[in-house]
């Protein structure tokens, strides 16, 4: 294996791990979206925020360690943040109805 | 550079980054230790806990990404946790006096 191949394998591994962790948060958001009929759950939002913070620290570390591009990390976080914003918007709309 | 050298350089970089982050938390603990005469500050403890959580996620990621050994990560976290436990013990002792 050449150094280029090793670097590429490590980067792909790092990206796969980050996407896996992002997917878990995605699932948490989905669950909350599907149970919108239930009343708002502050504990759930706290869990989501904590998970988002944890992922952002992982992404930041992967960038600093030279494993992924800053743009790749930003894309993962941005996508999740949009989903989270949609969830909170839906929750707020429901609450004001 | 051989693949062994690249892997070693990446591991050392990862460890240096984690120790740097651990050092920042260490500093936060020190500041709180030095101001023990002040009254206990729940917000400060919240910040410390959040920082510890963030670091533990970074360490876990570095292990899964194959950059560091599990034992190396554990050592960094254990050392910090001992310091944190000492801080809380000192705070509790002071509070009961």
UniProtKB/TrEMBL annotation, chains A, B:
- Protein name in UniProt: UPF0358 protein PRECH8_08730
Quote the Pfam families the UniProt record gives: DUF1507
Alphabetical list of InterPro entries matching this protein? UPF0358 (IPR009983), UPF0358_sf (IPR036270)
Of which family is this protein a member?
A: Belongs to the UPF0358 family.
**Keywords, sorted A to Z:** Coiled coil
State if Coiled coil is listed as a keyword.
yes
Q: Which residues form a coiled coil?
A: 70-97
Which SUPFAM superfamilies does the entry link to? EF2458-like (SSF140404)
Which NCBIfam families did the record assign? PRK13666.1
The species this protein belongs to is Insulibacter thermoxylanivorax
